[in-house]
Specification:
The protein is an alpha/beta fold. 26% of the residues lie in helices and 24% in strands. It contains 15 helices and 29 strands. Strand 20, helix 10 and strand 21 form a beta-alpha-beta unit. Helix 1 packs parallel to helix 2. About 6% of the residues have low confidence.
């Protein structure tokens, strides 16, 4: 047989629970499998704050559960690619998956693209999306603290998320079209029995209208009488609407390729094969009576076992053999464990598997008193710091609030862990240096002296701040409470505290007291879900950065006009990190682009300025004064399209 390096046994399209499970099973069986995902690995479940019904796992988050799935698949040898599938050629023994990063050759294909939240089309839904109408309770629930909210839907998501929303809302009213919830009775019971939830049956939302500050009224139709009432919150203020009305299958890629039902779901047979030999489907995009994580993972396993057989048959038929994994991380760990037993001694008990004892794993990686980061996180940081090719100076613009002290402590511990790859300089409202930390700190920085930071594209190569260079203002004013004052209507407002990623001037004769701003900044403390995007921002700013296709690099480099991207985020939002990372990856490649993130919980003026009741909120400003305001998670290709590249 002939070894073919560019051939896969199976390409899995979709990195949710179904796709990740299939990747795990195929890789463990030593087949070459690639999992392709255009957005965020993990799928829709990553926006679920709490998962309590996955067998064997007591309580977790959707993101944590799928991160474990991905790590398991990767440890067994599965390959991953962030790209969008753009077309399929399914004729013949060797099929082709066309992607935004090139073509993939494979024997078998698993379609696991899932589904996306359904839009209902009520009046005002599109107009006020992100400004009162939301689809993610975890991401946007805190915006409605102390307010009433309407939840639209009668399934699992509506029942579960209505209970979650009671953490924030003063009252939750659930509007159910049918005579009862359509989900499991025990799940519905939690919503029905919650004193902060009112459930109304046989009704539907016809529209919403807004006034000063947000949504003010809702039109609700009684399906039995045909009468429409005007609903307002009891306090006469604003309210929110959360839509959980099912999903639309993401099957556009296979429309006209495999058989679909009248609703656009993939029709599968016995063991999840589609109407095309060698093409299987798993997860929420196929016709089935229950769409839950557990059924998605079951689908992935069933389809994977069938695809193993199919790939084996095709390999024997064609004489082509993909380079299958033979030494995975899992096998190396097992071999190392076996080798640790000395000859002639009684072998030690077999080590517990990764998921066997969650409590022990948590204890092993627990933080010590006074430490911000666990042992596991420190290990991951060490890998990132070890790959950085130049030091990064974290310029901290502080005020006199506890949040500034928190940011300084957070950055200080990262500097201490970085092995010289990070250093920091703190400046007060007058723009004077108050503290310098880190062995790689530029020699020209002096406590008590002004700090100068050159904007991207202005002396970026030399650090020269002479004629023609534009420096970023590092000064400001404080109010009576010690909080920095800023103009929320300004372009990339100078809200403090902020950490800016900078590099020192390089070359003989360069002014070592001047820093060059990379265009990446975070206003607030980049913890919670933003921690990963911040760490990857460091890696991207320091180089070499995350791998990116040449086409995307060229599009990023083609941006000629100065472009400022402001991303309003929440640390509880699971969709924000990818959006921040996408904008900042572009900024790391092009000095004409600045991408700064703002934690709206600390800067509510920005939420009010843009009427944002959902995150991520993306504000793009261009030199001609044009401004674009957009909501929702964005990948790098989507962000490039948004900025017009």
């Amino acid at each position: 047989m002939t070894q073919t390096n560019n051939l896969y046994d199976v390409v899995v399209i979709g990195g949710g629970p179904a796709g990740l499970t299939a990747g795990l099973y195929l890789a463990r069986a030593r087949y070459r499998v690639l999992v392709l995902e255009k957005d965020d690995f993990g799928g829709q479940i990553t926006i679920t704050n709490e998962v309590v019904n996955y067998p064997g796992v007591g309580r977790t988050t959707g993101r944590a559960l799928t991160q474990t799935m991905r790590q398991q698949a990767q440890d067994f040898g599965a390959e991953f690619l962030s790209a969008e599938a753009t077309g399929l050629d399914v004729d013949g023994d060797v099929k082709t998956v066309h992607t935004s990063r090139g073509d993939l050759k494979t024997f078998g294909i698993l379609i696991a693209t899932g589904a996306s939240p359904r839009k209902l089309g009520f009046e005002g839904e599109a107009e006020y999306a992100g400004r009162g109408v939301a689809y993610c309770a975890t991401c946007d629930g805190e915006f409605f603290t102390g307010k009433e909210v309407l939840v639209i839907g009668g399934g699992f998501a509506a029942a579960e998320e209505s209970v979650f929303l009671t953490k924030y809302a003063s009252k939750v009213t659930v509007l159910v079209r049918e005579d009862d919830f359509t989900c499991d009775a025990s799940v519905a019971a939690e919503a029905k029995n919650n004193p902060k939830i009112d459930v109304r049956y046989g009704v539907e939302l016809k529209g919403v209208t807004a006034g000063q500050g947000g949504l003010r009224e809702a039109a609700i139709l009684d399906r039995a009488t045909g009468e429409t009432e005007t609903w307002k919150p009891a306090d006469g203020g604003t309210f929110g609407v959360f839509v959980f009305a099912g999903y639309v299958p993401a099957t556009q890629l296979v429309r006209g390729v495999v058989e679909l039902d009248d609703h656009g779901y993939v029709v599968t047979h016995g063991y999840l094969e589609t109407s095309v030999p060698g093409v299987y489907a798993a997860g929420d995009l196929r016709v089935k009576n229950l769409r839950q994580v557990v059924t998605a993972t079951a689908d992935g396993a069933i389809a994977a076992v069938e695809l193993e057989r199919y790939a084996k048959q095709l390999s024997e038929k064609t004489g082509l053999v993909p380079p299958r994994p033979t030494a995975s991380a899992y096998e190396k760990a097992e071999a190392a464990s076996d080798a640790s037993a000395a000859p002639g001694t009684t072998p030690a008990p077999a080590p517990a598997k990764r998921s066997a004892d969650a409590a022990a794993a948590a204890a092993q990686t627990a933080k010590q008193p006074g430490e911000l980061f666990s042992a596991a996180i420190k290990q991951q940081l060490g890998v990132v710091f070890g790959r950085m090719t130049r030091p990064i100076t974290l310029a901290l613009e502080l005020d006199d609030t506890p949040l500034s002290a928190e940011l300084q402590g957070f950055v200080g511990e990262m500097v201490a862990l970085s092995g010289g790859k990070l250093n920091s300089v703190a400046v007060d409202a007058a723009g004077l240096v108050t503290a310098i930390d880190g062995s790689s700190a530029p020699a020209g920085l002096v406590v008590g002296e002004p700090l100068e930071v050159v904007l991207p594209g202005a002396g970026a190569d030399s650090g020269d701040s002479g004629d023609g260079a534009v420096s970023l203002p590092l000064y400001g004013s404080l109010d009576d409470s010690g909080r920095a004052e800023f103009d929320p209507a300004g372009v990339l407002p100078l809200a403090r505290p902020v950490v800016r990623l900078c590099v020192a001037a390089e070359g003989d004769g360069a002014d070592k007291s001047v820093l060059t701003f990379t265009g990446l900044a975070f206003h607030g403390v980049p913890s919670g879900h933003e921690f990963n995007s911040f760490v990857l921002g460091l890696y991207n700013a320091a180089g070499p950065g995350q791998p990116l296709g040449d086409d995307l690099k060229e599009r990023a480099a083609a941006i000629k006009e100065p472009t400022d991207i402001m991303i309003l985020v929440s640390l509880t939002c699971t969709m924000c990190p990818e959006t921040v990372l996408s904008a900042q990856r572009i900024a790391s490649l092009n000095p004409a682009v600045r991408a700064e993130a703002y934690d709206v919980s600390h800067f509510p003026e920005l939420k009010d300025q843009y009427g944002a009741m959902s995150v991520p909120c993306i504000v793009i400003n261009r030199p001609d004064g044009a401004q674009t305001v957009e909501f929702g998670k964005k990948s790098i290709p989507q962000m490039l399209e948004l900025v017009g590249a």
